[in-house]
Amino acid sequence: MTLIEFFDANALHFLVPVFSLKPDKLIIIYDERQYSSDRIDYSVMAVKSREPNLPVKTININLHHVSEIQAMLEKVVVNEQNEEIYMDLTGGDELMTAAGFYVAKQYALTAVYLNRKERKIISAVDLRVLSDAVELTLDEYLMCLGAKQLNNSHMEPDPLMYDNILRMAEVTFDDLMSWHALQKFLGNHISNQRMTVTIPEKCVYNEKEYDVRPLLRNFEQYGFLERKSGNTYAFTSKQSRSYLGIFGIWLELYVYIHLKRTYSRVHFGVVIDWVGYDGKDTVDNEIDVVLMHHSEPILISCKMRKPDPRDVYEIKSLAYNLGGTIGKGVLATTYDVNSTMANPHEIGTRMNLMNVGMIQADDFKKKTTKDIMRAAILPDQFRGRQSMEGM
What's the distance, CA 5 to chain centroid? Predict the structure, then answer.
């Protein structure tokens, strides 16, 4: 089977039909005035990452002239030796879709599209299900954009420590100021080489002293510190030392573990190089948690404080870079954003206006993870988005 694919900037629209239908040959139609040759090359590279032996041909046309599109498609169909030809109408410009449907009807081709809600490849004529929609990996998605994932910014937690991490995270949420004080001290005294540190009973944050002994007892109880003598403690692992050196890591871990226990494709501390194949590894962005849901990346930024407008703009920009107009960004926070919703000038209103989702840490004690993500991805005014059905 030969698949004619109208190129689309959205990696989901482009890659999922190709991988799902498993053609013997792929023909990509694009307009070089809209997409650079590099962008097309990256997309072919993404196809080849899963289907290395698939023959791929690219054809450049003027997408603003429907007669040219139609003539070119007819020429492709006439010259194509494969008796079975599919025309994918999922992506591309509206004129491409119109011309593609016309040619498919005239030459009795199989016109198809990706139904994101049902996660099926459907016949555009009689609505028959032709294939299930495959799931993309984050690496495939990034490759299609010319980006790549570098080494994670943090060590992933040991699954055997999940419960203890969740409990310890909740302790830090309940006593943020003491954790601020302790982490500030540790940040100034933790060495990359040493596995022990002497910690005073009280630590200072913003010129105020906080008794950190309750926190230290919890870090001992949950297996991150071991008391040696007096006020001297040993980190139980390099991972523990790393986690105690970063203030906001506990919310990142908290969100990651809850998602990991519910969804299969969750990534922690993702580092992205947006120009991934120039021979240089450049850290352009770090994203705390990424959930790949039905081939769509959901970016989650975690803040153990009240989010500010810059946080909203940052995650919105990253989501757009990765997913275009359907890209989804979420802010997770320990702050009670819901209490601000009545004030039109507060952060909750701004998040709603910019379609940035919200997760409040306390929600995990009251709701299921699926309910939390459904609310974050589908706030009331956006419940029509098909891609998140079945969240």
Answer: 25
